[in-house]
């Protein structure tokens, strides 16, 4: 009897989990901050609005994206902690960018300092997401014209 109940439980769990997975989407860049530029590094924050069209939630695992702003490659933005995303939700998540100036052309740094408040941001990378033992890598290629926000 216990074996039969266990079999029915796992069979129903398997059938429920066979729904097709819709990929999550980056809906937009909420804000892009450059916190600090000094002689050693650039520190910035990127707030992305991420939409989950699936009815079930999952976890975003530490992921990284290459960031380019107005044609200047700034480095890699990272999500350091895993984040739980609820089903059928849309939320803003913060990614931290820390890049050494030795990896950036000095003329690009001067151009970045002299930029006005708007520019085109390009985000390329892979978002690692999953639930239980199932993990998937979702490619993210996004670009948008955004304002460069001052950090208050």
Rg, rounded, reads 20 Å
- Beta-strand level of the residues, as a percent range? over 45%
Q: Helix amount, in percent?
A: 10-25%
Structural class computed from helices and strand pairing: alpha+beta
The number of E-state strands comes to 8
The stretches of 5 or more residues where confidence is low (pLDDT under 50) are none
**Dominant shape:** elongated
Order of helices and strands: HEEEEEEHEE
Strand order of the largest sheet: 1-2-6-4-3-7-8
Describe the largest sheet: 7 strands, mixed, barrel
Mean pLDDT: 78
N-C termini distance: 64 Å
Number of helices: 2
Q: Could you explain the architecture of this structure?
A:
This protein is an alpha+beta fold and about 150 residues long. Helix content is about 15%, strand content about 60%. The chain has helices at about 1-15, 105-115, and strands at about 25-35, 40-50, 60-70, 70-80, 85, 90-100, 120-130, 135-150. A seven-stranded mixed beta barrel has the order 1-2-6-4-3-7-8. Strand 7 and strand 8 form a beta hairpin. The longest helix has 15 residues, at about 1-15. The chain is elongated and about 75 Å long.
């Amino acid at each position: 009897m216990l074996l039969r109940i266990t079999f029915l439980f796992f069979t129903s769990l398997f059938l429920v989990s066979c729904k097709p997975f819709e990929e999550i989407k980056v809906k937009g860049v909420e804000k892009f901050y450059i916190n600090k530029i000094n002689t050693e590094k650039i520190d910035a924050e990127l707030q992305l609005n991420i939409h989950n069209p699936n009815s079930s939630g999952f976890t975003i695992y530490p992921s990284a994206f290459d960031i380019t702003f107005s044609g200047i490659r700034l480095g890699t933005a990272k999500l350091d902690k895993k984040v739980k995303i609820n089903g059928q939700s849309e939320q803003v998540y913060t990614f931290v960018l820390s890049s050494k100036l030795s990896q950036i052309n000095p003329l690009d740094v001067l151009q970045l300092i002299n930029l006005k408040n708007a520019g085109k941001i390009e985000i390329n990378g892979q978002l690692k997401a999953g639930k239980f033992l199932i993990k998937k890598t979702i490619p993210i290629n996004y670009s948008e014209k955004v304002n460069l926000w001052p950090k208050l």
